[in-house]
Each structure stands twice: as C-alpha cells, then as structure tokens.
Structures
1.
Amino acid sequence: MGVTKTDLFTEKQNELAKVAKVFAHPARVAILEFLIQSNSCINGDLVQELGLAQATISQHLRELKEIGIIKGSIEGVSVNYCIDPIRWAEIQNLFQELFSGFPKISGCC
Amino acid sequence: MGVTKTDLFTEKQNELAKVAKVFAHPARVAILEFLIQSNSCINGDLVQELGLAQATISQHLRELKEIGIIKGSIEGVSVNYCIDPIRWAEIQNLFQELFSGFPKISGCC
DNA sequence: AATATTTATCGTAATATTGCGATGTATTTA
DNA sequence: TAAATACATCGCAATATTACGATAAATATT
C-alpha cells in the first residue's frame, strides 16, 4: 500500500512522525544547519552549497516551509529564508517530550 | 530517482537523517512509547495495541532494531523487546545538538 | 518594453516505503 | 515426534519520495 494508517495513532504521534519525516533527509538537515549559521539564505546560495539542482532545493525548502520550521520573505528578485524561532522551539519540545519520557536508569537489557 | 545523494552531505547529517527516518512513522513512535511505558514488550502485545498486522509490526521492529534503538531477547517462544539506553541517549544527543545550535534570541523574521 | 535574474511548479523516471497474506523457522508443550 | 505458539521473512500491490530538466512567474535592470 505505502499509505500510513494515521487513524490508528494519536494526534501527537502523527505530528511527531510528520515532523521527523522532514528531518529524514540530509539535504533538509543541511539546509537547516546552513540557515542557523547564516541566519538567512536564498535558494541560489544553497544550490552552490549543497550541489543539488535548483528545482530539488526548492522542493526541499517547500517541505520545510510546510511544517512551518522556516519562513521565506521576498527580497527583491530572491527569497530570504530563515528559521521560525517559535516553531523551532515547538518542534524541539515535541522531541524532548519523547526523549525525556524514557528514564535512563531503568534499562531492562 | 528516489535515491538520496548521501555523498553530498556530512556523516553527521546523513546519520541524523537516517535516525529521523525511523521516527518518521507513527507506528514506530507508538512502539517506542509503548516500550517506555511497559519497559518491555512482545510483538503480539503490539499487534493488540496498535491494530496492525503481525507482519507489519515485525517490519517496524526490524527498522527500530537496525538503528540500534531497541534490542530483542528471546524469551521462550516470544521475543522481549526493550530500549537500549546507551543508543537512546546517543540519538537524543544527535537531535539536541541540532536544536541547541539555533540560538532562540537571534530570530531574523 | 525587452532582457536578465531568481525562485516556483510541472511532469516524469527511478527508487523507497507501507501493509499484509502466505510461508518459513524456532521453541514449547502434549 | 506432532501440534501449537510466536516471530521473521518473502513477495506483491499501492503509494510516497527523490531528483531534475523544462517551463512558468515575478521582479530588476537596461
């Protein structure tokens, strides 16, 4: 099938999975790291930086935009992308909740 | 194509993406949360809990095992799965490094 | 207005993921 | 040893993802 049965899971589980999927490609991780470093960037910079085609970068940027972790503002001919601090913190918390749910001491194996 | 160009990215970026991919399905998130709660479980329990077929659960468990976040030990006829605390902490750090790399104060937009 | 520059979108090919029935394998119990 | 129990693997169909050339859209420059 290839289609996830989202109705079997909680909203939070589906949300975490959806966000994780965006992190699940090295190009998107690289874009985020580049954004952190430069505090803004344009599609063209990333084509140079990453070595992927312009269309491919644009597609990855859209996926990042879709979960709200980055925002783009038009800057003349180009577009300036940057991280949305609010959403970034939200997503950080989502992972944090999962990770902190496991008490390191109680390993059974 | 559908094939990721891993050679364009750093080892760390590829590693984070690979781990994120495992979190990128609600069933696997649910399995991890169930493991945290019960501190151990067997495939059959999860079939009851999640409502997916046995073969499907087994496949998800394999993916979790492949990145080392869970371990299974044979317990008679069944298999007891649990979280590997060492690997869990490693993966937590991987995400933590990314998240903490962005200084919340410096939002540009 | 015409051209250049930059990003978005469309269409397509290659590959990956998801889900499950059927079957295989290993251990336990009768 | 035979049957039962529990998990893994195989094979397949449906869908999703990745990458990119071609082209569209929007702004800037001449």
Note: The radius of gyration of chain B is 17 Å.
2.
Amino acid sequence: MTEQEAALRLRILKTAQDQFFSHGFTKVTVDEIANRIGVSKKTIYKFYPSKDELVKAVTETTLKDVEQCCRQIIDDENLGFVDKLQKMMTHAALHISKMGKPLIEDLEKNAPEIWKEISDFRSKRIMEDFGKLLKEGVAKGIFRKDIDRRLILLIYNNVIENVISPEVLTQIPFTASQVYETIIKIFFEGILTGEKPVKYLPKKIVERSFKKGKK
Amino acid sequence: MTEQEAALRLRILKTAQDQFFSHGFTKVTVDEIANRIGVSKKTIYKFYPSKDELVKAVTETTLKDVEQCCRQIIDDENLGFVDKLQKMMTHAALHISKMGKPLIEDLEKNAPEIWKEISDFRSKRIMEDFGKLLKEGVAKGIFRKDIDRRLILLIYNNVIENVISPEVLTQIPFTASQVYETIIKIFFEGILTGEKPVKYLPKKIVERSFKKGKK
DNA sequence: AACCGTAGAAACTAAATAAGTTTCCTCAAA
DNA sequence: TTTGAGGAAACTTATTTAGTTTCTACGGTT
C-alpha cells in the first residue's frame, strides 16, 4: 500500500468515524461517506471489504487510542494517583462524549458483538484501572470508603454521556468545559474524605477537544 | 375529536418535529416516533394518513408559528423599526437554528414541494418584511445604502444556520446566546451608518429558546 | 500514438428496511 | 358479558442500501 493509499484509507476511516459518532452507523450509508470524501463506493470497498468491517475498524481504532492514552497516564511515574485519576476521568469524558450515544445505542441493538467489545473494554479499562486508583485513594484515607466505586463510575459515565452532548450544550448558558469542570468538582468533593487537602481540578480543557474525529 | 385525542395528535406532531428537526425526516422512521411516544404505528396512522402528511403538518405548523410571531412584531406600534428589525432577526435566528440544516437539506432533496413551500415562505416573510425594515432604515439615514439587503439576509441566514448548531457550539468556549449576541453586533455595526446612535442589542436570549420542539 | 491501469459514476442484483395495513390479544368501559 | 380501542407483532409491498459490475475517462507509461 502506497503512502497515498494509506492516507486515503485513513481519510475514509476518519470520515466514517465522524459520521458514525454523530449519527450511529445504521443511519449512515456507505454512499454518504463516499460522497463526503469525493470517492466512489468501489474505492471504499477497496480498503474495507464490508460496512461492518469499517465499523469494526472505527471501533478498534478508537479503543486503541483510548487504551494508549490510559496507559500513558497509568505508567507516568511523575503523577500521583489523584492526578492519574483526574486525568483518567478527563480522558474518559472526552472518549464518552465523542463516541456518542447514538452510536453506542446503535451498536448495542444492531452490532452486539462490537458493542460487547466496547463494553468489555470499558469494564476492563475504566472499571479496573480507574477502580484501582479509587481503591488506592480509599486505602490512603483520601477517598471515602462508603461509596461503591462501581456506582461512582456508573454515575460518572451516565452524567458525561447525557450532559456533555451537543443537544444539551446548545440549550444551557454554559460551555462544555464549564460543565465538565463542575462535574469534576461535584465528583471529587463527593468522594473526598476531606481529611487531607487535595488538588483535583484539571488543566482547562479546550472545547476543541470535544470535536469528533479528532485524536 | 376529544380533547385527549387532540392532545395525543399534538404530542405526535411535537415528537415528529423534534426528531425531524434534529435528523431530517428520511432518517427518522415512523416506528421510532411511535416508540418514543409509547404508541403503535397504527395510532399514528389514525391521525396522519401518511408520513408525508406528518412531515407536511410539522412544516406547516412551524411556518404558521413563525408567521404569527413575525406579524406580532410587525404590527406592534410601540416598536421602532430598529427594534422590529432586531426582534425579527432574533426570531429568524431561533427559527433557522431550530429547524435544522439536516431537515432543510433532506426536504430539498427528498420532498422538494415542501422545501419550496418553506423557501417561498422565507423569501416572502424574511426577504419582504425584513427587507422592508432595512429599506426604511436606509431611507432614514440610519442604515448604509451601499450594501444590498438581499446579501445581508443571505449572509445572516448562512451564519445562523452554520454557527448556531449543536456540533459547533460543543466545540467552542461560548454559549449560544454569547455567539448570537456577537453575530448581532457584527451585523448591526456593519450596516449602520453611524450618523445616529442606535440601540440594537436584543434582550438576552435564554439558551432554552434554542430547544427544538419548543414554541 | 497506443496501451494499460485505476477510479468515478451509474447501473445492477440481492438483501434488508420501512411505509402502511392487518391480525390477534388484552384491557377498560358500558 | 359484550364491545371497542389500541398495543404488539406479523404481513405485504415498495423502497432503500450493501456490495458488485459495467462503462468511460483520464493519466501515466511505453
């Protein structure tokens, strides 16, 4: 595959990702993706043998990117676990809000095996690594022990999924980063014991980070 | 039709409007609308003989609401024409941003006769009434005469349609009302001669006004 | 100038989806 | 007990879409 072909293949992937993230995949036709890029369906099927393979490629690329980012955070020895937790939460928020609800619901209904892959990944990556950090915080007396961490993550996931969405953000007098900062405050203030001062606010997220199709 | 039946009919209309405004009408199935409301397709077809009729009803109701609001503004003798223009612009903005681009493009492609109705309405209502107010301003030396008002409206329509949209607003550090206020400033500063002081800023629009399906 | 390979556009085939209708069943009201 | 209405699902028919094939044009190579 030449470099130009690789570039085209990536462009197909990014355009599909953008459209699938916004609308789900069943509502987006291969014809539409082709038209957006300015190629024919024949060219798309040159790189991806079927629409399902394209959906899979979008999903796997997304999860790989998330995995890589999470690993960088976990493996960063310069960060304390609170910083790690906060960065993980930020990254999870970006992932959840970009890989939007329309696609997740669509996958659950129409491509359950891909949905299961995402669900398993989130369980492993979010519940394990995330949960490990929460557990460490409890052990050190920084986080409260009376709140089940699986519920923390369930609530967090739902809040991000439903509040940081284009439709909601259009109708409230707050920007995406303002909303996210408030969510982080409520969560951290809710799980901290208060016995030790903890800095948990992330560096301000620029709204552009919420752009779909962006790394 | 009983009052309860009328309420159900209206609920079907509002749900359809909400979904069509966000996604266009071809991508929204009658099944989905029925599921959202918790009725069967049979019940929907009781009130609307076909999907096309439902789309037509949504469109006509929308245009009627806009017409009524515009008329109230035009007929309000307590308002100067600058206030009238500004209120018309605000109302046009709410209409354009709510009756979203997905539906307009969908109608143009798949239901051209409905699209033409909207287009004609917009020409008449926006170009005529709107244009009349601009003309009056030029005559009074308040607005510049060297800018064609058809272009003013074309540019205004495009700015509102493309900037005040959920996807864009998610990715910028401004709220919908902040963006709208800036648009209004640029437009009025751009068309005013500056010979006379003019107050043009609207009362602040609450973001909830951008909610689809809301009157 | 001729040939070759590739991709766009559109047509094609087969499968899937959706509009609109009908059937069966349940429930509430008379 | 009977009746009527609506939900759920099945059904029919039409339309759409996934994936394939054909035709044509264009650019590169010989």
Note: Residues 90 and 202 of chain A are 8 Å apart (CA to CA).
